[in-house]
Amino acid sequence: MTKIVNSWNDFDPLKRVIVGKADFSVIPDEEPATSEKVPVDSEMRGMWGPRPTETVEKANAALDRLAKELESRGVIVDRPTPIQWNQAMGTPDFRVPSGMTQMPPRDILLTMGNEIMASANSFRCRYFEYLAYWPLMNQYFEEDPEFKWTQAPRPRLTDKSYKHNYYDEQISLEERLERTANLDFVTTEAEPMWDAADVLRLGKDLFIQHGLTTNRKAMEWFKRYYPEHRIHAVNFPGDPYPIHIDATFVPLRPGLIINNPERRLPEEQRKIFEANDWQIVDAAQPSHSEPPPLCYSSVWLSMNCLVLDHKNVIIEASEVHQAEQMEKLGMNPIPVDFRDAYAFGGGLHCATADVYREGDCEDYFP
Ligand code: NVA
After folding, report:
1. Among residues 2, 14, 38, 137, which is most buried (max CB within 10 A)?
2. So what's the ipTM on this one?
């Protein structure tokens, strides 16, 4: 019996990690919470169905490249068990024509010390995604006597969980930004809803993005579930599609965070970092002016890196500006060709979920 699960942040030495798989990925049909994620001029508007096989194969090749790089550095890599997402699914409260994918494990699994918790996602098409990780969770449960296998309260995702007229009209970018500034999002406060990728773990402190995929009630739920932790709701006013914190605010090592220059953390929320001598640096510009085809994410996946320890960081091979900045910041960037996986739910950080990092739960903001 060994200790398999332990991780309190995104930068301590990584020893074991889950890397997603693209098999059977589907572009989901529109549903109340997903439309906001597809820009009005995107070629993905109004289309849904299984992703083209060739793109799945290329994405899997990129994911395998990442896995190989990690293994060559002594990191144990676990993979989910793909599920056929191209089938109708439902609960007593809703029906959807398909699921989505098991590519971005970061959206689904939150590791807090010896606990891995499946999140309370707001997309109906992602309701059953946790099942792809259950064989691994069961394995950890059998092999690690301290592993806590947890599922957050399942949201019901009835019509009450969404604002139904939120996207009826073609809203302009300005209007979107205004809504972000006013903390007016598509989800209601009917029940706690959150994606694990909105949660930034820094030991005792959790910085959680309040946006399109995580609501205020989730913050309250976190406060009660983790009374020993400090929960900070954070917002990034320049983001028209505030979903997931890891292309916006990315820690590289204790005391250093890169922040998307178009989505700066407001002064008020910076205070805790400044008071504790943390440096927040504007991230370098992305190398690309457009995301790849059929991609939900922005070009800022450039900063969605996977930190291996306080020095080494895996970044996407074409992101040369980000690599240069990493070097200037004293990091050693390790390039992996990964862009073919972007359309399946994100970059290098999204595509992984922590299982084991050395280190304890530190108090960085005493
Ligand atoms: N909303 C983010 C997703 C990051 C994984 C972006 O596309 O920038």
Report:
1. 14
2. 0.96
